[in-house]
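Model it.
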Amino acid sequence: MIYSKELRFSTRGEIDLVDITAEVERVVEESGIQNGIALVFVPGATGAIVTIEHESGLLEDFKRALMELIPKGAGYLHDRIDDNAHSHLRATLLGASECFPVIDGRLVRGTWQQIFFVELDVRPRHRRVIVQVVGE
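Modeled.
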């Protein structure tokens, strides 16, 4: 059995973190699937899906680490096109998807492991995330 649902929301732009944990868990519950896998995927080259604890200090640390690892305006060749090479590079580093086990109808994740969409583009965007649950 396969169940898919699209989440839609707006972001504020560069390194906006959107906690989508509750919505993903709701999709798994709606699916009726008892055992399988839940895929959370962002179609886009400047967004990412990550797991991280939803704690304000840690979220700020995460933002700072991204800015230090891949700084804006560091002479990237892609900036000749639209000044967002750092957005693409950060998204590539983080990844467009995460998979989670579904056991006994529930999404399996750690106590402090929330699911976030990370907006990496330089401007606010309307985003969609696809949640697909596969199993029985």
